């Protein structure tokens, strides 16, 4: 599948209806994954608050994991070392272990695995990996899925705005800086990683209100201030809106505000995700780099194995 077809596949992925059948009582949820698979747990954690959720993007699991923990390993390839290590540790502690993967060692090790379609870049399979979490713990109405599908479909048909933005980044050699806010801090991080992997460029992120306690200083006084382009997610929180306004006012910086067509959580989530998909894809094209290429990451993994 071409990378553009992978991007267009996202709208189908949100219809993926598999879920875990969790029958035992549990106290907490721990989700382990790296990179394009790890972001899935972070997005879910930021939204879901009915039970404690901890995400792990590293070797090692929290000490509290026990037989009353639901532990979910997410790895698109099913062969990510850190995630496999953590699944093994969770099994040793008798947690209820589940997995989301397209196969690999993870599928072999975890009986309760949801197997998702293979052949995509992990970062292009976000919908397949995220939906089982929502379907299991916090189902999304069909009506909202339909509306989100329509938003993604219209972005697939027309992403001129993102193409223009990509050109602007390229022509000015801008370094993108993304500022999110709850419940989309993880999406700001996803933007960063999409710039890294698709466009092969550095990008940085932070979120309101935290950035008002640190990044606000370089916003006004950074070395080479004209090298950055700021993308800021609009928020329906009045205090965050005020912070966005005042931050621009007192630093003299002008943010590029990204506004979704709706404030409904799920629709906005996928709008913001897909915006970055296209922006970073278009930046790869204009830079003449291959958006699918993750050869350096692969080389590193193979040297470690
Ligand atoms: C994203 C990507 C990487 C991987 C990461 C973990 O497209 O290629 O960020 O997601 O290296 O690998 P998996 O997802 O297979 O566990």
Automatic annotation (TrEMBL):
Pfam families: bact-PGI_C (PF10432), SIS (PF01380). Keywords: Isomerase. InterPro entries: Glu6P/Mann6P_isomerase_C (IPR019490), SIS_dom (IPR001347), SIS_dom_sf (IPR046348), SIS_PGI/PMI_1 (IPR035484). The lineage of its organism: Archaea, Methanobacteriati, Thermoplasmatota, Thermoplasmata, Thermoplasmatales. GO terms for molecular function: carbohydrate derivative binding; glucose-6-phosphate isomerase activity; mannose-6-phosphate isomerase activity. The keyword Nucleus does not apply. The keyword Isomerase applies. PROSITE patterns: SIS. GO terms for biological process: carbohydrate derivative metabolic process; carbohydrate metabolic process. It comes from Acidiplasma aeolicum. This is Bifunctional phosphoglucose/phosphomannose isomerase. Residues 16-147 form the SIS domain. Belongs to the PGI/PMI family.
């Amino acid at each position: 599948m071409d990378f553009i077809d992978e991007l267009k596949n996202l709208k189908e992925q949100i219809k993926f209806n598999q879920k875990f059948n969790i029958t035992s009582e549990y106290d907490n949820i721990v989700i382990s994954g790296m990179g394009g698979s790890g972001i899935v747990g972070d997005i879910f954690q930021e939204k879901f608050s009915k039970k404690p959720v901890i995400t792990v993007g590293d070797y090692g699991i929290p000490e509290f994991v026990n037989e009353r923990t639901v532990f979910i390993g997410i790895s698109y390839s099913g062969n990510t070392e850190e995630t496999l290590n953590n699944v093994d540790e969770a099994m040793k502690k008798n947690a209820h272990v589940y997995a989301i993967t397209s196969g690999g060692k993870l599928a072999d090790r975890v009986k309760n695995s949801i197997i998702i379609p293979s052949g995509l870049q992990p970062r292009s399979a976000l919908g397949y990996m995220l939906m089982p979490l929502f379907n299991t713990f916090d189902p999304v109405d069909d009506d909202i899925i339909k509306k989100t599908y329509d938003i993604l479909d219209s972005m697939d048909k027309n992403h001129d705005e993102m193409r223009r933005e990509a050109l602007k980044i390229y022509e000015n050699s801008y370094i993108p800086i993304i500022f999110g806010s709850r419940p989309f801090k993880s999406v700001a991080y996803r933007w960063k990683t999409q710039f890294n992997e698709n466009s092969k460029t550095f990008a940085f992120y932070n979120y309101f209100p935290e950035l008002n306690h640190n990044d606000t200083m370089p916003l006004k006084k950074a070395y080479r201030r004209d090298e950055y382009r700021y993308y800021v997610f609009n928020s329906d929180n009045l205090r965050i809106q005020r912070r966005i306004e005042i931050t621009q006012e007192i630093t003299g910086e002008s943010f590029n505000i990204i506004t979704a067509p709706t404030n409904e959580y799920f629709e906005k989530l996928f709008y913001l995700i897909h915006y970055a998909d296209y922006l970073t894809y278009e930046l790869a094209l204009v830079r003449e780099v291959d958006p699918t290429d993750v050869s350096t990451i692969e080389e590193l993994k193979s040297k470690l194995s």
